[in-house]
Write a structure and sequence with these properties.
By secondary structure, this protein is mainly β. The protein has one helix at 194-204; strands at residues 4-7, 18-21, 26-29, 47-52, 56-61, 66-70, 85-90, 94-99, 104-108, 123-128, 132-137, 142-146, 161-166, 171-175. The strands form 5 sheets. Strands 1-2-3 form a 3-stranded antiparallel beta sheet, with no helix packed on it.
Length: 220
């Protein structure tokens, strides 16, 4: 049996869950804080994916359905019906699921709009932060929504991202490197656009009236 431990990095205050998994599916174990039952997963050995929120947990079954447990004050541990889900994510008090048709559904607390995903069926990955959410699109761009008081729901521009992650108030993305040497491309996105020219202007343009002490400004 090909066993592995699928560890979920999340915004939880209890320890992470682990799937002891074969090549097809596995069972779940949980540990740590358990005041709301969030670290006591359901029995069974047909789970494909897991997600740990603040005080709730989710698991994706091999039949495409979702089970939730733990704190359910905002309905975050009560997933929608259906068996066409392929990925799940849990935030502080909200949850997300990606469907096989590329669309996203959300549920739970929606105070900041974090549980209302954008329309469309061109999404390939999801992640849920504290009170914000992200989704990766098929064209390599990222969509963000929800709480944005630290800019966490405003992803960078570009269409060469391949993975995303969301924390309580910050986010991360892996960007595929450009396979070309392109003069003027300052952020390795295989393009020379307004971003590059703005950076050029910030670093290369010299105004001797504003900065007379710049070494390049020699009085006549």
């Amino acid at each position: 049996m090909n066993r592995r431990c699928h560890v979920v990095a999340a915004v939880a205050i209890f320890c992470l869950l682990c799937i002891t998994q074969s090549a097809i599916a596995g069972s779940i174990v949980g540990w740590g804080g358990n005041d709301n039952g969030q670290a006591t997963p359901p029995v069974g050995n047909k789970f494909m994916d897991i997600a740990a929120g603040w005080l709730h947990s989710l698991a994706l079954r091999s039949d495409g359905s979702i089970v939730g447990w733990g704190n359910n004050r905002s309905g975050q541990a009560t997933p929608p019906d259906g068996n066409d889900f392929i990925a799940i994510a849990a935030g502080w008090h909200h949850s997300l699921a990606l469907k096989s048709d590329g669309s996203i559904v959300g549920w739970g607390n929606n105070y900041h709009g974090q549980a209302i995903p954008p329309d469309g069926n061109d999404f390939t990955a999801i992640t849920a932060g504290g009170s914000h959410s992200l989704a990766l699109k098929t064209d390599g761009t990222i969509a963000g929504w929800g709480n944005n008081d630290h800019g966490q729901a405003t992803p960078p521009s570009g269409n060469n991202f391949v993975a995303i992650a969301a924390g309580g108030y910050h986010c991360l993305a892996i960007r595929e490197p450009c396979q070309y040497v392109l003069t003027g491309d300052l952020n390795d996105d295989c393009k020379v656009n307004l971003y590059d020219f703005t950076k050029m202007a910030e670093n290369w343009l010299i105004d001797c009236r504003q900065e007379p002490n710049d070494p390049a400004c020699t009085p006549k």
